[in-house]
Amino acid sequence: MFKNYPVIQGFKTAWRNIKKNKGFFALNFIGLYISVVVCILIGLIILHETNFDKQTNSKISIYRIVSTSVSSNGKTYSPVTPYPLASAMRAAMPYEKLVSQIHFQTNALISFDDKKFKTENIIFADSVFPKIFPLNVKEGSIQRALAEPGFAVLTEKTAHKFFGNQNAIGKRIKIKNLIDLEVAAIIADPPSNTDLPCNVLIPYSSLRPEFIGGLPLSEWGVNSAGFTYIGLSNQNQIRHTEAILSSIAKEHVNDPKQGVETSYHLQPLSDIHYDQLYAANNPTYTINLQYLYLLGAIGLFLILAACINYTNLSTALAIKKSKEVGVRKTLGATRIQLIKQFLSETFLLTALVFITAAFSVRFFLPLSNNFLDKNIPLDWFHLNSALLLTGLWIFVSLLSGLYPAFVLSGFNPLNALKNKIAAPKSSQITLRRGLVVFQFLTAQILIIGALVVAKQMNFIQSKSLGFNKENVVDIALPENKPEQLKLLHNKLLAIPGISSFSFSLGAPVSGDGVSTSFNTKEKYASEKIDVAVKATDKNYLKTYGLQLKADRWFDENDERNIDNPIPDSLKRYVFVLNETAVKALGFSSAQNALGKKVTFGMNNISAPVIGVVKDYNTSSLHDAVKPVLMIEFPFFYYDAGIKLTNGYSTSTLAAIEKVWTSVYPEHLFESSFLDQHLASLYKNERRTQQLFYLFTFLSIVINVLGLVGLLSFMIEQKTKEIGIRKVLGASIKD
Questions:
Q1: In this predicted structure, what is the pLDDT of residue 633?
Q2: Within 13 Å of residue 328, how many CA atoms lie on the same side as its CB?
């Protein structure tokens, strides 16, 4: 009768069996549902991360120019290139038309009609840019927009944010109160998985030195946020292009007397998102492939745990299905037909799980995006997403159902009808025990991982950074004209809730900073050492709680400042170093460095060392403490650090904002708390900790569900034994 067994009839029988064993169904459904939802989310994350920049021009191979510098301190890697590099490449390669130079502005104030918007991801691009990275133009034309200064191109989302439903073409906007632009075109929003995010495009010819702190754009020694891209149609051009880059570096960058050798290389566009060497200063984040492997392994472990539950429960329920197997075999069913029948039960159950999970993901994905700071889309009709869902369903169904199907279909029909199923073979018992051990082993691994991450976070939170981070608010200064700094200084003095404040290039740990080289005056010409430069004032030490180790800090007699302006011809520079800088210069103690003349790379200024401070971190704890040179340099005062007397007071913060707005009425007030900024540096670690906690909890839940199922079945097997014991007088307690 099973020769032409209809598929639909098979699923009807499977549905009846599921209804007959509701407890079995519920336990397996919950375990599979949890693991499938998590696995789908992990799969979507992996698909998103592995498809970065796949929407670019497929006719050419796109590369980014990156640099490697070798000095006595070792190697440094950077994706940032000098602004004249593209012009030099075009001159050396007149036949190569696809060389583009851009400037990436992380954020800037855009204003129009008394409206102000802080806008992120602004690109100054030349006319070659759309030939390398094709743009989907919705309105207007980009031909003139990127070829001539004075225009702007907005994405659809940005245009709607600025102008609502009005036509944005022809509207005028202002960037950082520096340049006026006319909106010439609207382009489609870029995909979320790109290493070059963009909301506003501005012609490269509109770029001014003020966007990089007033530094000249024509200098080869200036590295701010410039990136160079090239599109090659022939793989044979790679060696030739790198040879050209080598000659350019030799001609314009490298000087044998400097002690630093820089080389330029081609980095494939497909490598940018994963290459950790050149992750610093990327327009967007990079991800370690090991992290994706770890996520995939955790998803696989959770799926395996749920499948093991199904396998164990299915084989444990073999006695209940033994008569069914005996009847079917007596009526002529073959083992293959029985395997198909039992697999159909598994496929039906998992189909219900996956349908429920697919609908649930629409609710969980926004939560995941918010937690991970991503914008992963969900489209089940997209080929990759559909393949993920279908492939996962087939994999889970086969993994869960194959072994139980082979076990159940192998029963002897005579013994099955007499309900005399033999005890499981030792190999089956060993396998079942092995599967349970594997389940709990994976849970133990996740628990250990969670404990390790928790210990790391405790270390990060308790580690002293060498400065005070409490009750300090940082506000950005859009301009640093002397009269503005003087006015702001006087107005801040009048606010009672302020303990102290300092003008500088940024807090000890901040995104702002300048790196150059330094050494003692005698050695500077022949040997240069990398150093981080902090432009500070005389209040920096008190505001941020730095600890002085030797001699003194800056005072009003050291440098021209807003309190004591003196002519350029009379100003006197002095330096304060940290302990690591003292050691890098070869001094055995802080006292030995005092009074020594040091030269550093900004205009080759030489000045004496007047003090040494205790080491403090200038970046997260991921990086070692670096040599730091501090100097009073008002030209770089783009930040005000304010220490509050009695913690974060709403009235004090409101007063600071009012004062700031009165000095900079055309700009948008921005502030950040130093402790919150420091916490953001370890955002990935905190996420990893929370993810480990979540995955560990889910793994334990799935494993417990499996144990509950097995224990319930063991109790059911002992029903007669329990009845006999009660008849003979045993109590519930016994």
A1: 85
A2: 24
- With helix as H, strand as E and coil as C, how does 233-248 read? CCCCHHHHHHHHHHHH
* Beta carbons of 150 and 180 less than 8 angstroms apart: yes
- CB 652, CB 677: distance < 8 Å: no
Instruction: Indicate the residue type of 496.
Output: P
CA distances from 697 to 154, 174, 277, 292, 309 (A): 45, 51, 35, 20, 16
Top mean pLDDT of 23-32, 576-585, 632-641 is at 576-585
Q: pLDDT confidence of 501, banded at 50, 70, 90?
A: very high
- What's the full length of the chain, in residues? 734
Angle at 65 between CA 68 and CA 185, to 5 degrees: 145
d(C-alpha 624, C-alpha 491), whole Å: 38
- How high is the pLDDT of residue 563? 43
Q: Is the dihedral of CA 720, 725, 729, 732 positive or negative?
A: negative
pTM of the entire structure? 0.81
| Phi, psi of 227, deg, nearest 5 | -130, 140
pLDDT > 90 fraction of the chain, expressed in percent and rounded = 35
Amino acid at 497: G
- Three-point CA angle 472, 473, 475, nearest 5°: 145
For 473, 506, 509, 690, the CA distances from 476, given in Å and listed in that order, are: 10, 9, 14, 32
Residues 555 and 561: their CA atoms lie apart, in Å, by 10
Coil/strand/helix, residue 133:
coil
Residue 3: per-residue pLDDT: 44
Helix spans in 522-649 (H): 540-544, 579-584, 590-593
Q: For residue 234, name the pLDDT band (cuts at 50, 70, 90).
A: confident
pLDDT in the model for residue 272: 93
State the average pLDDT over residues 386-411: 81
Place of tokens 């494939």: 268
Does residue 85 contact residue 117 with C-beta atoms inside 8 Å? Answer: no
550: its two tokens? 């030797």
- Over residues 361-376, the mean pLDDT reads 90
How many C-beta atoms surround the C-beta of residue 38 within 10 A? 23
Distance CA 482, CA 149 (A): 30
Least confident window among 502-506, 587-591, 668-672: 668-672
How far is it, in rounded angstroms, from Cα 511 to Cα 224? 12
> 328-358: per-residue pLDDT in tens?
667 666 777 777 777 887 888 888 889 999 9
Q: Burial, 97: exposed, middle or buried (Cβ in 10 Å; 0-12, 13-18, 19+)?
A: exposed
Measuring CA to CA, how many Å separate 638 from each of 105, 429, 435, 440, 695? 16, 71, 61, 55, 44
Q: What are phi and psi of 185, to 5 degrees?
A: -160, 155
Burial class (CB in 10 A: 0-12, 13-18, 19+), 52: buried
- 211 phi and psi angles, rounded to 5 deg: -75, -15
Long-range contacts of 56-61 (CB under 8 A, 24+ apart): 56/132, 56/133, 56/134, 56/269, 57/131, 57/132, 57/133, 57/134, 57/231, 59/233, 60/98, 60/132, 60/231, 60/232, 60/233, 61/231, 61/232, 61/233, 61/235, 61/268, 61/269
509 with 620: CB under 8 angstroms? yes
Q: Which helix (H) or strand (E) holds 124?
A: strand 115-125
**In the numeric block, which tokens belong to residue 705?**
């569900």
Angle between helices 683-717 and 426-462 (to 10 degrees): 150
Place of tokens 């539950």: 309
Q: Does the pLDDT at position 701 exceed 80?
A: yes
* Helix residue ranges, H only, 127-250: 129-132, 156-163, 237-248
CA distance 538 to 553: 7
Ramachandran assignment for 506, one of left (phi > 0), alpha (psi -120 to 50 degrees), beta (any other): left
